[in-house]
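User: Study the chain.
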Amino acid sequence: QVQLVESGGGLVQAGGSLTLSCAASGIIFGIKNMDWYRQAPGKQRELVAYTPSGGITNYSDSVKGRFAISRDNTKNTVYLQMNSLKPEDTAVYYCNAVIWPAGGRWGDYWGQGTQVTVSS
């Protein structure tokens, strides 16, 4: 069964860096966009960074210049490098992807999330 699993979250001081990983596991026939979202307590889930196609990357205004998204298609893995972290970056970070699994059809998949806490 196809799953998305995030890792790399934790506690970091303001100004520090952290790199998140999200790996798609299972028998997969195809993967489209692999994106990162986050949701802070009491707030709506927001799109942080995404890779539409052709190596294109896009970021929300709040993280531009600080975060970087990248993909390793041979490993079905997407990364989010976070630099100059601020307390307001504290949230649960989720991986999202559109996947064609073996024995199924294209669908929208979400990971369980990884907690990032930035202390001041």
